[in-house]
Amino acid sequence: MVSRTAGGSVLKAARFWLRDVWGPGWDPDRRRLLVQHYLSYARHPAVPPQHTPAPDAPFDDEVRQFASDYLAYVSSLQRTSTERRQVRLTYRPIGKNLRLLATAIRRNADAGVATDIHPDGPAVEVRALERRGHRWQPWLWSRDPEAGDITADQAWRVLFAGPECLAEPDTPQPLPRWIGRGSGAFPSQQLRRVITLAVATGYACQPVPLLARCADEAARAIGWPPRETPVLGLHVRRGDGASSDLGPPRLSNRIAFSIAQYLEAADRLCDAYGIRHIFLATESRVEIERAARLRPHYTFLTVPHDRTLFPDIAETTRYIEEIALDHPERALPLARSAIIDLQLFARCHAFVGAFNSEFSMLAWLMCVAGRRAVVPFVSLSEPDQRWRLHPYDALLNLRNNCPLELYHW
To answer: Which residues, 6 or more positions from 143, have their beta carbon under 8 angstroms from its beta carbon?
Structure first.
């Protein structure tokens, strides 16, 4: 006998496949992507929720060398390869675009081909936005009214220096070979995936010189310590993701955690590795003040972004991309704030976040890219190891609690 709950899941799954996958307005590319997502949901990612090697364990020199070699390989491939594949950006937030581009760069580099940005948007998005009265644009930068009518690849270069374009043909770097087993909680194949995706993420997130100087100036302004002083990167997801409450967030669109839980995880890493500086990135000014009050013995480093630009789930159910559609003047400041935070995460020596946030994933990958080794980290969210029939349980993070990016690794 099928239980009522199981029967409901079967009906939801059947409705999804019959209406959403084969319904009107769905093209073959979109169907193929949904099937890929659904099948990948059967895989359980091997990335652990935490990695805390012994405090005196040195970074693996072999891992550092591989990361450096892989970065040189990707850069060389972009300049020299005549075989190139395009990736389409999305109108959604900058984190998703960085994830799309970095994943494509890593996948294509392993296949020996370069990656270019398609000038246009995904057909499904273009049609959906037209129905809502909007023209498709990669929203976080080219929706600024002063940007004018530019394509996605041109818009990307307003803020980012890469990926590099084809230059004079030359002898490309060879694909570096992974030799060692890796160490700690990571088996060698999974470690390779983490390192290569982190390197590709850092490569995709190269800001133009003006923005790079802004990140340097922000670090100096908030009192970033000398290079040899360890800093913990802490990302607390709020804004349109979760409300800022003293306890666990009352409102959220995913499994969310209180600031106390984040700080308890930070305590473990700070105590283990002798860290007293914490770079805290969050949409919530309330959580910044609360963290400083709860942990006065740490030095908290926060960039004074205009956080009134972020939507608050306690005030609206609209997501950040929907706000930007109606208020394009917010686009560029939001993009700049995200890029500066990610550049500062690349300077951190350890990380605490929740991997059901795409920005947390990016921040962690930037830490790994900056150190060129897997830093000590703690993710408060863990993949749900149970199989569920309804794909949106994974796609919307309602029960799966980790983004599908982990499953595609």
So the answer is: 137, 324, 325, 328, 331
**C-beta separation of 173 from 82 below 8 A:** no
- Model confidence at 169, pLDDT cuts 50, 70, 90, reads low
CA distances from 249 to 267, 317, 356 (A): 21, 15, 15
Backbone angles phi, psi at 231, to 5 degrees: -130, 135
Q: Are 274 and 393 a contacting pair, CB within 8 Å? A: no
CA distances from 48 to 186, 187, 402 (A): 8, 11, 12
Please compute Rg for the chain using Cα positions. Answer: 21
Q: Collect all residues with Cβ–Cβ distance below 8 Å to 296 and sequence separation of at least 6.
A: none
What's 275-318 look like in SS3?
A: CCEEEEEECCHHHHHHHHHHCCCCEEECCCCCHHHCCCCCCCCC
With 0-12 / 13-18 / 19 or more C-beta atoms within 10 angstroms meaning exposed / middle / buried, residue 202 is buried
Q: Does the pLDDT of residue 178 top 80, yes or no?
A: yes
Q: Which secondary-structure segment (H or E) carries 236?
A: strand 231-236
Tokens encoding 10: 């079967």
Q: What does the pLDDT look like over 285-336, one tens digit per residue?
A: 999 999 999 999 999 999 999 999 999 999 988 888 888 888 888 888 999 9
For domain 57-408, the question of CATH label 2.40.30.170 is answered with: no
Cβ atoms 80, 170 nearer than 8 A: yes
344-365: pLDDT as tens digits: 999 999 999 999 999 999 999 9
Model confidence, pTM: 0.91
Per-residue model confidence (pLDDT) at position 2 = 32
Query: Tokens 């084809």 sit at which residue?
Result: 166
Two tokens, residue 249: 């967030």
Q: What are phi and psi of 84, to 5 degrees?
A: -140, 140
Structure tokens at 253: 């669109």
Check: CB of residue 286 under 8 Å from CB of residue 244. Answer: yes
Rounded CA-CA distance 218/210 in Å is 12
CA distances from 253 to 348, 356, 399 (A): 28, 10, 10
